[in-house]
Amino acid sequence: MSSNRSIGQATRCAVYLGIASAGLALAAPAQAEPLWPGGPDVPGVPAIVPPAEITAPCTIPEARACVRLSTNEAWLIDNRKVTFGPTPISHGMAGYRTPPGATRVFIKKEFHWSTMHHAPMHYAIFYNGDIAFHVGPIERESHGCIRMTWDGARAFYDYLNIGDLVEVVP
């Protein structure tokens, strides 16, 4: 009787091990990208549709910064390819609209004090007269400057150099 009990225990143990190993095999399938957004994952099969490349709306190939006023977004670009962004911005309010067009960076100051508005301008990059990219509240419109988050302003400050072209589109 004890040998029957041992055989029964061995059989149960083998069954449990088989179930456990099958569960482990199913628990970690190979990961693949979906065939289309929201589509099924097929192990070992790459996505048919490549992920969309981020593009900026500016058209001047030499532009290094691109701003779209209508969507409050800005990008850093190199030969029309996005290197950073989009990053959220705010721009000029009525009576102080940020003008569209293309101009060049002519001053960079890590910290600038606006004597016109008695306000700090961290990571200021002047590109159109007294208009600059700088840190500021993006929830409110400015007096013409492009206000940015700390991360956005720092990325623009580190990337842009005096003489670089900035394109602003409506």
- Overall average residue pLDDT: 83
Low-pLDDT runs:
none
Provide the structure class.
alpha+beta
Oligomeric composition of the shown chains: single chain
Q: Per CATH, what is the topology of one domain?
A: L,D-transpeptidase catalytic domain-like
CATH superfamily membership of one domain: L,D-transpeptidase catalytic domain-like
Number of helical segments with 4 or more residues: 2
User: Largest beta sheet, briefly?
Assistant: 9 strands, mixed
| Rg result | 29 Å
CATH class of one domain: Mainly Beta
CATH-scheme architecture of one domain: Beta Barrel
Total beta-strand segments: 9
- How much of the residues is beta strand, in percent? 25-35%
Helix content: 10-25%
Task: Estimate the global geometry from the Cα principal axes.
Answer: globular
Q: Order of strands across the widest beta sheet?
A: 4-9-1-2-3-8-7-6-5
The topology string of helices and strands comes to HEEEEEEEEHE
C-alpha termini separation: 90 Å
